[in-house]
Design brief:
Blueprint lengths: L5 E8 L1 H18 L12 H8 L1 H24 L3 E11 L6 E9 L13 E2 L7 H14 L2 E5 L8 E10 L2 E14 L9 H5 L7 E7 L13 E15 L5 H7 L5 H33 L9 H21 L4 H7 L4 H28 L6 H14 L4 H7 L2 H24 E2 L1
Parallel strand pairs: 4-10
Antiparallel strand pairs: 1-3, 2-3, 5-9, 6-7, 6-9, 8-9
Helix pairs in contact: 1-3, 2-3, 3-13, 4-7, 6-7, 7-10, 8-10, 10-13, 11-13
Organism: Candidatus Kuenenbacteria bacterium RIFCSPLOWO2_02_FULL_42_16
GO biological process, one term: protein unfolding
Keywords: Cell cycle, Cell division, Chaperone, Cytoplasm, Isomerase, Rotamase
Length: 422
């Protein structure tokens, strides 16, 4: 007898259904197997079959056959699975039906609330001219000429300096930088730091104490009084170009400053629209979640969500040239501590998953295999140089993830049409 949280599927695949996967496997195998008279990847099926045997071809194709047929089966039967299936091959003979069993964990069922009384208002996107002014100022500053000065540093200068942070006389790990750029007046550093730099000249070294904010991102410095040892390497006066027609032409294909302002405003509107949509979707789901009764969430579901969130964090850090281990060290945090911190957010995400899948089932919302194939193609085109990631994209796990992601998007779009008012 199966546990309540598991399902067992028996799938039988006919030869004409899995033949296309064997043809694809043949092409893949012929790139690895030297066959006289044929270029790698171009040997016909029958030649490869003679060389390696049809059973070996079927074995090569097996992973893709299971990936596709399992995903199709759970979509067709509307089974809300959790994690990867445990596969047992029951029959596997070339030219005969392939039979396998898939044992998989399933998500608990919930009953969505009545949505009739729910209503949310869509926020209006407004862009003020002063917002465009600020972007234009930053853009002009990024194009500023840096004029080396011998005078003491003043407000609005660029200063390049070395610093070392110590606590109780002990130099701190990850507490030093070389030739670090500081734009005086922007107050991007901790409070009081820039005030100490104003008046210093190139070659000067200075020690001073300052307190880090309580919410500082590096835990080993947060809310602590630290000693800085700072050496100024160079002081630059910034010659910032005026944001006029000539400046606009140096930025891109713009006729005048008004064209550039229009472009910046459109970009800012698009950014705000994306953020507004994200907030609206979060509010929408929270409103419905608060009206829904949930059973105790399976630990496997919580663990999966935490794992996915860490994976998303790793990808975001990689885009910024960082890795998770370094990031955790900077925060004075362990991976176990991070997982604990992520659990409240993971619970909200897990409830969202259960809700969206329940609504998809109730409203008969689904995605086709063609839609999944199209998404796989889009991802393949975007990440064609990342061979490791592309191998994951072809897995049954990732295909199932895409199916659920696309279905969730359809459900959210359906909810917006039903609940959100202009």
């Amino acid at each position: 007898m199966l546990p309540r949280a598991e399902a067992l599927l028996t799938l039988e695949i006919q030869p004409d259904e899995y033949q296309k996967f064997m043809l694809a496997a043949t092409q893949k195998m012929s790139t690895k197997t030297k066959i006289d008279g044929f270029r790698p990847g171009y040997a016909p099926y029958n030649i490869v079959k003679q060389r390696v045997g049809e059973g070996e071809i079927l074995n090569e194709a097996l992973s893709e056959i299971i990936s596709r047929t399992f995903a199709e089966a759970i979509l067709k039967e509307k089974i809300n699975t959790l994690g990867s299936p445990e596969i047992t091959i029951k029959k596997m003979t070339p030219g005969d039906n392939l039979i396998y069993e898939a044992r998989v964990s399933v998500l608990p069922e919930i009953t969505p609330p009545n949505l009739v009384s729910l209503s949310l208002k869509k926020s209006t996107i407004n862009i003020e001219e002063k917002e465009v002014d600020k972007i234009l100022e930053r853009l002009a500053k990024s194009r500023a000429a840096e004029i080396l000065e011998t005078r003491p540093a003043e407000n609005n200068d660029l200063v390049k300096l070395d610093y070392q942070i110590s606590i109780a006389g002990v130099p701190q790990e990850n507490g030093s930088q070389k030739n670090f750029p500081v734009f005086l007046g922007e107050e991007h550093m901790i409070p009081g730091f820039e005030k100490q730099i104003i008046g210093m000249v190139a070659g000067e070294t200075k020690k001073f104490d300052t307190a880090f904010p309580k919410e500082y991102f590096q835990n080993n410095f947060a809310n602590k009084n630290c000693e800085f040892t700072v050496t100024v390497n160079a002081v630059y006066r910034l010659e910032i170009p005026k944001p006029n027609d000539d400046f606009a032409k140096t930025i891109g294909d713009f006729q005048n400053i008004e064209d550039l302002r229009k472009h910046l405003k459109e970009n800012l509107t698009a950014e705000k629209q994306i953020e507004s949509n994200r907030q609206l979707e979060n509010e929408l789901l929270k409103t419905i979640i608060d009206k829904t009764g949930f059973p105790e969430l399976p630990e496997k579901l919580m663990a999966n969500e935490v794992h996915l969130m860490i994976h998303e964090l790793e990808r975001d850090l990689a885009n910024r040239g960082l890795d998770l281990a370094t990031w955790l060290t900077n925060l004075n945090k362990t991976e176990a501590g991070l997982k604990k911190d992520l659990r409240p957010q993971a619970e909200v995400r897990a409830k969202s998953i259960l809700l969206l899948r329940a609504l998809a089932k109730k409203e008969n919302i689904s995605v086709s295999e063609n839609e999944i194939d199209d998404e796989v193609k889009n991802i393949t085109n975007l990440y064609q140089d990342n061979k490791k990631f592309l191998a994951q994209v072809k897995s049954s796990d990732y295909r199932y993830y895409l199916a659920q992601t696309l279905t969730n998007k359809k459900v959210i779009d359906w909810l917006k049409e039903k609940i959100v008012k202009e």
